[in-house]
Structures are given as C-alpha cells and as structure tokens.
Amino acid sequence: MNALVLTKFNGNPQVQEVAVPTPGKGQILVKIDSSPINPSDNSFLKGLYSTKKTLPVIAGFEASGVVVASGNDFMSKRLLGKSVACFAPMDGDGSWAEYMVTGNKTAIPLKKNVTLEQGSMLLVNPLSVIAMIELAKKGKHKAIANSAAASALGTMLNRMCIDNGIALVNIVRREDQVELLKGQGATYIINSSSKTFKQDLSKIFSELNVRLAFDAIAGQMTFDLLDALNAGGEVKVYGGLSEQAAMANPGRLIFENKKVSGFWLSEWIMHQSLLKMLKHFNKIQKYLAEIHQTTVHQRVGLNGAVAGLATYMENMTAGKVLVKPGLK
Amino acid sequence: MNALVLTKFNGNPQVQEVAVPTPGKGQILVKIDSSPINPSDNSFLKGLYSTKKTLPVIAGFEASGVVVASGNDFMSKRLLGKSVACFAPMDGDGSWAEYMVTGNKTAIPLKKNVTLEQGSMLLVNPLSVIAMIELAKKGKHKAIANSAAASALGTMLNRMCIDNGIALVNIVRREDQVELLKGQGATYIINSSSKTFKQDLSKIFSELNVRLAFDAIAGQMTFDLLDALNAGGEVKVYGGLSEQAAMANPGRLIFENKKVSGFWLSEWIMHQSLLKMLKHFNKIQKYLAEIHQTTVHQRVGLNGAVAGLATYMENMTAGKVLVKPGLK
Predict the structure, then answer these.
(1) Residues B115, B164: one domain?
(2) Which of A153, A269, B65, B244 fits A125 for a cystine, CB–CB 3.0-4.6 Å?
(3) Which chain A residues are within 8 Å of B44, Cβ to Cβ?
(4) What is the ipTM of this complex?
C-alpha cells in the first residue's frame, strides 16, 4: 500500500510503498477513507509534539474508514464491515495511508446519518470541545475565552457554548473572521489585530468575569490573556500556533494568583470512564449529523498532503483539509 | 520628619520634610531604626508591584524600631516603649522615614536576643521561607529548587530545608556563590552560567524527582526550570529579577501537565491563623538570634537609599542594605 512516512522530524513525510499491516488480537484493519489535517499534525511532523512514536512512522492521528479485517476475538470481529471513526495507536503507524491497524477500543462505529468525511473529524475536535465545556462547568465558569475562535474547533466551541449557556469570548485575528463568527451566532468577538485589542479584552473579561481562557497560540497571546483575566484566572494552553514560548507577566502570577497550565486531549481521555466516552460519542454524532457540520475546504491524496498541510496552517478558517488515500 | 517620598513610579523617591503622623485607634507610631531593601522595593518603586498605595507615598515595606506613641486602646498601648518588627500598612506610608504609623497587628515585639537590625528583616524573608517549606510539605515534595539561592532568602531557605530534611537544588549564577552555598552546607548547587546548565538541571531534577521550583528571576529561567521539572511539576514565580516575562514551552504545559503559577507572601499570610503566625514569629526569632543571621552589607541614611538600592540589586549576595533614617 502507499503511506506517508516520516523519517525525520522535518515536517516533510514522503510517500512510500509499504506492506499492508495485519491486525492482531484486539485489533482491526481499517481501509482509510478520510483523515483530517489538524494543528497537532503540524506539531508532530516538526518534532514539537510529545509522542511515544519512533521513526520511521506513518503520520496521521485520526481518520474514518471501513473495517476490512480483524483479530480473531469477539470485540474486534463485531466491527468487521462497519464504517468507523478511529484514532491511530499511541505508539504505532498513523492514518495517512491506505490502511491502518488500530485497537478495537479506539474505533467508534458511525451512525447512518454521519458521513465518512464528517466522521473522520469525530474525535479530536469534538472531544476537545466537550472537555473544555466540562472544565468550564467544573470550575463554575459562566464565561470563558478561546484564542483560535475561527478554527474548526473554535466554531464548534462557539456553538456548544451557546447550547450550554456559557458566554464565550471568541478571539480572532482578521475582520472576515469576525463576520464568520457573527454569522454563527457569536455574541462576543474580539479581533487581536485591532489596535485596541488589549483594552477590548480587559473590558469584556471584566464585564463577564472571565477567569478561564483556552489558548491555541502561545507567545504574546498567553501574556495578553493572562493580563486581561480576572484575579485567580488561568490560561490553559492547548496549542502553540505562534511557535513561540508562552509568556506571562510575573506580576500577574505573583500578585493576582493567576496561572498558566496546559490542556491535552489524550490526558483528559485517560480520566474518562468508558460509559462517559460512549455518551460523548453519541452526543457528537448527533451534533455532526444534525447541528454543526465541519466545513471541508480541500481534499488531497497522499501526494498532496504536505502541500495541504501548508494550505491548512495558512488559513484554518477556510475549513479542514482532508487526506484521502484513495485520491490519486 | 524626613521621609523618602515616591511621587512617580520612576524608581527615584526623594527625601522630603513631612509631618510626623499621629496614630489612631488600633495603631502605633514606630521610631524607625532599620528597614531592609528588598527586591520587592525595587519592583514597587518602578511600578511593577501590585499595590493599593496611591502616590505620593513614603516607600519601604518592613522595618524595626521602638514604639513611641499609640492609639488610646489596650492592644496598642501595651506595645508602648517596645522594640518591634513591623510591616508598613497595605495602603499607606511606608518605613523609609524617621517615623511610621502602622496597625498594632502588624508589629511583633522583639525578643531580647534579637537585635533591631536583625529584627528589621524578621518578616518578609523568613516568612517567605516558612511559606515555601510549608508548600513543599503540603505537596509531599522531598526535593524542591530555588533560582536565587545566593540571596538572603536563598541562604535562609537552604538552611531551613536542611533542618527540615528537604533536598534543595540551589541555583546560583556565579562560581563564588557556589562556594558560599557550599560553606553553608548545601549539597545540590547548580551554576546557571555554566554551559551545561540545562543538562545539569535536568539530571539533578530527575535524580531527586523535583516537581516544585521557586523562581525569583522569570524570563528564560522559568522556561529552563519548567523544562527540567519532572512531569506534573510547577514553577512558582515569586520575583521578576530579570525584568522579563516568564516564559514556558507550550509542549511542557500541554503534554507534561506542568504549570507556572505565582507565590506572594501577602496572599499566603492572609490564609494563616493568628496563632499560627505567632508560632512562626517565635520560630523565626530563635532562628535569627541563634542559628542564621542575615549578613548586613551596607547601612545608608535616607539620602543614600536610592544608591543603596542600586548597590543591593547589583550584588544581592554581598548581603542586605539597611536604610537607617537615623544616619545622616
């Protein structure tokens, strides 16, 4: 089969012909239909992502496809022939290939009204959004903020905050993104390119008593968010799109009891019960089918994935880029 | 009386003649003997310190002296004639003056074997050290780190960690400071000027399982400490000597569950009971009298305080600079 193999953490995996893997006990073989390009792929390919994977390895973290073979055990065999959303294994080859082996516990059968393309984006973003909402509720936050509001995750968070009665301060960096968010019913939208950004942020954080901000950007954004948060507030960094160190004013840490921490989906998942995860997946499939479709901007074959990654990172607002190994 | 008055947050208070203040109910008037220059004075004078004080205001946060007048209430009158260590009021004039009014609750009578000079340094540093030890014990840390190990606070922390059986990684920035710490019984000393600093730090943090670091410097130091800490670790920033933003690698925050927070003595004190504070003060006076004297490097009058501040900030290892309003 063809697969996109990373041999160095240089951001540049190459298409290679490799053997189709064989599923063992507890495993399934998925014929990949679609696999979205996420910011975490960019981090991983450049060696900025924490991982147990050793090189060379096939890239790609999540996908959808059809189960075409399985190990000789009940839980795996019952998935045979089903359309599934699936995670790549933590320590092995990923989803940017014609086929992928993964554990039967990291594959979720898709409901009939969820397409394979929407289903390929069922895991990372929707689960992240659910986790963020849960963290907000747990901390009794009536208002939170997100620094990458125009991304697929951002617009989904906006929708789910509206549904959950949580005020969300959407931070975007371009005027057309302000319009996008408005069109999706967002009430609070701040443009980080505006000259009055810091004042706008402080004003709205103060009015809404924002003490929790999710930050996908790091660098100066972390600094500005921490400055603007109310006393006792926390910035949870979940990405490093600026590719710079997260910064913080020592005075805000010392005198205002604020902190900077991180959010990692994999860590969060490990603390969820199986039952809770099943509930989450049902909720997500309903969302994806009926409420909030993620826009697909581009479909690329394995040969087009590296260029697709660049396209995506340059303008995430345009929508997701899907790697489709079946496309030539 | 003469007093050092700050009219702008420009780091440059001026000697002015002002009226001697009158103590009201619950207050005492202290004839100031000595007042140490602390890093927090530097921050305050430059406007980097969180404060409720409005300008113009007399600078200085802690001092020693003799109570020469009081409000007409029992608790204040019983301090008359006593030598005390005292804090400046949170919202009023400070201790760099011939006299200061403060509340009777923020003055502690000195035991006979504690000199006025040592007593003037009884509050900020020793209480900070006690707070740090308590935080370490509360988090069940058997090893912690401090990034300003050669300071008065740092050497006191070293001594108290030895007495409490907590391993302390002392981070200094010059070779003579390595010798100083060795002479004081320190086991783990790392020089941040060394080319192998980062590797040294990682190695020792890993060996001792360090997950808590106190950082007085911020900037790159916060970044390096966070990198080297074991998973789940926390950097508590308590100063900003580098006068730069605290920095953090997003990957450490996201994938290793680490965080950057702050430590502020005033906040900590607010959560202590009066009884506990009295115990702390007894312990500290014993320490100052019998175990660990703080070195005094220079004594300056009010006119010499600004120069003294510069001297102190340039070389904190040399010892404390005391402002003595009685010196001409």
Answers:
(1) no
(2) A153
(3) none
(4) 0.88
Instruction: Supply φ then ψ for residue B151, to 5 degrees.
Output: -75, 170
Does A232 lie in the same domain as A186?
Answer: yes
Residues of B in CB contact (< 8 Å) with A are 43, 48-50, 218, 222-223, 237-240, 245-264, 267
Of A258, A264, A267, the CB nearest to B262: A258
Residues of the domain holding A143: 124-266
Q: How many structural domains are present in chain A?
A: 2
Q: Which of B211, B229, B261, B257 is nearest to A264 (CA)?
A: B257
For chain A, 328 residues long, give each residue's pLDDT as a single digit of tens.
999 999 999 999 999 999 999 999 999 999 999 999 998 898 889 887 777 789 999 999 999 999 999 999 999 999 999 999 999 998 899 999 999 999 998 899 999 999 999 999 988 999 999 999 999 999 999 999 999 999 989 999 999 999 999 999 999 999 999 999 999 999 999 999 999 999 999 999 999 999 999 999 999 999 999 999 999 999 999 999 998 999 999 999 998 999 999 999 988 988 888 888 889 998 899 888 888 788 899 999 999 999 999 999 888 888 899 999 999 8
DSSP line for A210-258: --EEEESS-THHHHHHHHHSPTT-EEEE---TT-S-EEE-HHHHHHS--
Q: Within a domain: residue B158?
A: yes
- Bridge partners of residue B285, in order along the sequence: none
CA distance linking residue B271 with residue A25, whole number of Å: 56
Is A285 part of a structural domain of the chain? no
> Counting one residue from A and one from B, how many pairs have CB atoms under 8 Å apart?
112
Q: 């080297």: which residue's tokens?
A: B228
Whether residue B162 is found in the same domain as residue B73: no
B247/A247 CB distance under 8 A: yes
- Tell me which residue in B246, B248, B252 faces A250 most closely, judged by beta carbons: B246
| Spatial separation of the C-alpha atoms in residues A76 and A301, rounded to whole Å | 28
Domain identity same for B57 and B115: yes
Task: Identify whether residues A166 and A254 lie together within a single domain.
Answer: yes
Is residue A308 assigned to a domain?
A: yes
CB A122 within 8 A of CB A108: yes
Q: Are residues A106 and A168 in the same domain?
A: no
Residue B254's closest chain A neighbor by CA? A262
Count CB atoms within 10 A of the CB of residue B95.
29
pTM given for the model:
0.90
Q: How many residues are given for chain A?
A: 328
B275's enclosing H/E stretch is helix B274-286
Of A224, A251, A266, the last residue of a domain is A266
